């Protein structure tokens, strides 16, 4: 073809010519020449007339190279080098007047057609970050809607047009709205414009560093459930005024993380996913679990069972992993406390276990054991001591003295006394720590009750003549055992005085002796003295210093001896 000739109407043309002869039977042939001017309308067949690809209108087509690839636009099938042929981007002129993002740059010249912060060439492949293997730390099964973009086909979209015979090209359309991602300002159709989903942290146009809140390999701008909580982003009110900007996104727990990015929307320590926000699995929370039927689903309710105790205070997740599989269950029934209206199963609703009437059962703990009354049943008694757990500060200690009267709960219960009444308690006659009702030797005289004629009299054990008068007090008794108290004690002397000797004291059961120093302090005492004291301090091996000591020997109720004892060495 010959050299082009400038033409002001068509920018340039290609001239050519051919000759011809015309002859008849009578006349000689005549020769002529025809000049042909080929006028290319679209050199690169990209749907943009060549003359319109002289962007600076200087008549020089070779200095218009939008993508700087060395190929001028009028010969370049992809003018902006965004991987989408210009002919297909030009097609979108029919839909978007040629400028998807209305930024004044036509799509076929715009490196970011939808102005979402991601260069168009990075929106043409299907999610390059996606891996079918979920993050192993995720604790739930793959959802039906996990990244599965629709496919936008050029030949389908262009069916019936003069472009439908082009080679088929498929681009991702994540939200299936008929607008491929490269031209869609909200790629995942979640109501938050792509550019506000932080698709390119370092602003280089490449979304390899795009925000992925739930760390499941699908960045937020392509993820229809950004926080992977089972509720689709568009149903978490990410943009309440409908402008596509999430600056007014719902934040139920007011902790500066909007619900659509918050894995625990109500901040009750249970991950939203495990509060069953979408029981039929369609991503719409219209069937979300609402345990207390108060029109606030559990995943947004700070008090799931409406018992006046915030869910977080009912210890729904003891190991802190957000999964309520270890939730506190005070009554060991099938329902954990945070969704149980009677946490301790004592037939009193938790909300009614507010005994101080301040509307908060959390500060009602009548036994002061650190466990609130609502979590302790008044019907349970773990240690079987007669005091219900709700009133027992030591649920597993039957010797606990709940009323502080000096006697353990179990002892009071066995003896028929009220273990919660400090003015009612059993007796312990011999002060041996065993209450009378279960003491085999009530009076502590060394004679078992069944062998003691007087089991509650430490001075009497025998009644030989059956007159109900003990042997000690019975002056009619033929046998008399005179008692003599020694006034001298010489320990380790090897004589009879090496022990304190009280003659016949063993013949008077129930006797008692007490020895005092000069300051009135007890240095020795015994019941049923055995003539075995060697001058040691109380029951120790420490010898008392030499000196004078005062004694009281109670032989019987009618015979009490008092005097001085001299200890010498």
Please specify the SSE layout and strand pairing.
Layout: E1 5-7, E2 11-22, E3 30-38, H1 86-91, H2 93-96, E4 150-153, H3 154-157, E5 170-173, H4 409-414, E6 484-485, E7 488-489, E8 502-503, E9 512-516, E10 522-527, E11 547-556, E12 559-567
Parallel strand pairs: 7-12
Antiparallel strand pairs: 1-2, 2-3, 4-5, 6-8, 9-10, 9-11, 11-12
Q: Which structural class best describes the helix and strand composition?
A: little secondary structure
Report the count of strand segments.
Answer: 12
- Quickly give the CATH architecture of the domain at 484-567: Sandwich
Q: Residue share in helices? A: under 10%
Which descriptor suits the 3D outline?
rod-shaped
Q: Hey, roughly how much beta strand do the residues contain?
A: 5-15%
Question: What average pLDDT do the residues reach?
Answer: 80
In short:
The protein has 569 residues and is largely without helices or strands.
Overview of this protein structure:
- The protein has helices at 86-91, 93-96, 154-157, 409-414, and strands at 5-7, 11-22, 30-38, 150-153, 170-173, 484-485, 488-489, 502-503, 512-516, 522-527, 547-556, 559-567.
- Among the domains are: 381-414, no CATH class; 427-480, TSP type-3 repeat, CATH 4.10.1080.10; 484-567, Immunoglobulin-like, CATH 2.60.40.
- The chain is rod-shaped and about 190 Å long.
- The model is unreliable at 130-142 and 159-166 (pLDDT under 50).
- The chain has 569 residues and is low in regular secondary structure.
- Helix content is 4%, strand content 12%.
- The chain is built from 4 helices and 12 strands, in the order βββααβαβαβββββββ.
